[in-house]
Design a protein that fits this description.
ATP binds at residues 216-220, 375-379, 405-410. Residues 213-446 form the Phosphagen kinase C-terminal domain. Keywords: ATP-binding, Coiled coil, Kinase, Nucleotide-binding, Transferase. By secondary structure, the protein is an alpha+beta fold. It folds into 3 domains: 11-56, no CATH class; 98-184, ATP:guanido phosphotransferase, N-terminal domain (Transferase Creatine Kinase, Chain A, domain 1, Orthogonal Bundle); 201-445, Creatine Kinase, Chain A, domain 2. Helix content is 44%, strand content 12%. It is built from 16 helices and 10 strands. The strands form 2 sheets. It has an 8-stranded antiparallel beta sheet with strand order 2-3-4-5-1-8-10-9, with helices on one face. Strand 4 (314-318) and strand 5 (324-330) form a beta hairpin. The protein is elongated and about 105 Å long. The termini are far apart.
Length: 448
């Protein structure tokens, strides 16, 4: 039996079928009307495709509509962000009663003691005896033990767990603070912190003149104004007073190298904020869980801002982690220049009075930032030392030089000085210089 051959439709038949489809679905009518309107348009549009698209979908938004809608969405997002900030500020103004504080601190202390893996210095030094002696004490600005240890009570993985509520907390809660500070800053005996001494900057040099290892360097100095308490106790009004006091001192600078502009955080557009955060000019979003639990970000973004000179190699961050942090940066490794700039900016705002302690040096909200408060940080590429097979050698070097390392990946590390109590500024800088040279020498030796 012969099979039947199925005849394929001709091209004309396909066209007829498609034409019927367009007519039955209304496409032909819509296109015809759109083309007629284009034909009748006295001044032909520059973009006929966009014109026809608009005629085909009269309810569809055009580019202008989309931009308008996006603008409204952006405004709503800003309003939501502002509302959240306002709510947070309102909540922060509600003071806890004495009975609430007592209940919270007793409950949280028992939880801290019972936690098996937490090994913070707070847990180690807040003994039962210490706790009973200190829990009812207050500083002269009503800073409680809870105000100082709330971060550590809520974060068992803290390394310290304490953030000072005010300058007097260092003395009122000395029974806790002293042991923690001696341990963390490796202080032996009842020694006094030396007077500030920036010394001769010519003792410092370019740490990597051939630019083979170090990509950038920055030095950070933190300061707390003498007459104000720290973040956990500040109101919106006090945050803004601190900001204004520091702003006035900064904008008075007329030295060509250091004069610049001040920007209140809320005045910086979102796109600009994002750009400045990415390049390190601006402080990051307030997300650190340890600082958040310490109420460091209280009343955010009120009273926060940034000063930067015209070259953007000198900056000041206001009310971020401390009342003010002065920062000097360089895309290279010239320690001398970065050090000199930082010394100069401190001199130029000499009218500001900072909190200082006979034993601990300059005081701070963050107990890590006391003493001469100096943190020198370099971004360095050490691909050989960073190998697993050299990890013991690297760790030994870091420990011997009092340098802390943060792995950035791909052989890059951020290396930071850690010794700042019991040393002058120039001593910290010299020690760091010596340590970095040793690390770079060790890296070079691994190439041989």
């Amino acid at each position: 039996m012969e099979g039947h051959t199925v005849k394929s439709p001709s091209l004309e038949e396909k066209r007829q079928e498609f034409r019927k489809y367009l007519e039955s679905t209304g496409v032909t009518e819509k296109l015809t009307n759109a083309l007629m309107k284009l034909y009748q348009h006295e001044t032909k549009p520059e973009d006929p495709i966009a014109y026809i698209r608009k005629q085909l979908c009269e309810d569809c938004p055009d580019v202008e509509k989309v931009v308008e809608m996006q603008t409204k969405i952006d405004e709503l997002v800003k309003e939501k962000k502002q509302a959240a900030a306002d709510i947070a500020i309102t909540k922060s103004q509600v003071k806890k009663t004495a009975s609430e504080i007592d209940l919270i601190i007793n409950t949280k202390y028992q939880e801290l003691k019972a936690h098996e893996t937490g090994n913070s210095l707070l847990k180690e030094y807040l003994t039962d005896d210490n706790f009973e002696k200190l829990k009812a004490l207050k500083t002269d600005v009503n800073g409680t033990l809870l105000d100082n240890i709330q971060s550590g009570l809520n974060n068992f993985d803290s390394d310290i767990g304490i953030f000072a509520s005010d300058k007097n907390a260092y003395d009122v809660f000395d029974g806790l603070f002293a042991g923690v500070l001696e341990d963390f800053h490796e202080i032996e005996g009842d020694t006094k912190h030396p007077e500030s001494k920036w010394g001769d900057s010519h003792e410092l040099e370019d740490l990597d003149p051939e630019s083979n290892f170090i990509k950038s360097i920055r030095i950070v100095i933190g300061r707390a104004l003498k007459e104000f308490e720290y973040m956990p106790l500040l109101t919106v009004e006090k945050f803004e007073k601190i900001e204004e006091k520091i702003r006035k001192a900064l904008i008075k600078i007329d030295d060509e190298e250091y004069k610049g502009t001040y920007h209140t955080l809320s005045s910086i557009e979102d796109d600009e904020q994002k750009k400045w955060i990415e390049d390190g000019t601006l402080f990051p979003e307030p997300e650190d869980k340890f600082l958040k639990a310490a109420e460091t970000f209280r009343c955010w973004p009120k009273g926060r801002g940034i000063f930067k000179n015209e070259k953007n190699n000198v900056r000041a961050w206001i009310n971020v982690e401390e009342h003010v942090q002065f920062i000097s940066v360089d895309e290279g490794a010239n320690l001398q220049k970065v050090y000199e700039r930082l010394n100069k900016i401190i001199e130029l705002v000499g009218e500001l009075e900072f909190a200082k302690h006979e034993r601990w040096g300059y005081l701070a909200h963050n107990l890590k930032n006391i003493g001469n408060t100096m943190r020198i940080i370099v971004k360095v590429k050490i691909p050989k030392l960073s190998l697993e097979e050299n990890s013991n050698k690297f760790e030994t070097l870091l420990e011997a030089t009092h340098i802390k390392a943060k792995n950035l990946g791909s052989g890059y590390y951020e290396l930071m000085s850690t010794k700042r109590v019991g040393l002058t500024e120039i001593e910290t800088a010299r020690d760091f210089q010596k340590g970095i040279k040793e690390i770079i020498t060790a890296e070079k030796c691994l190439y041989l």
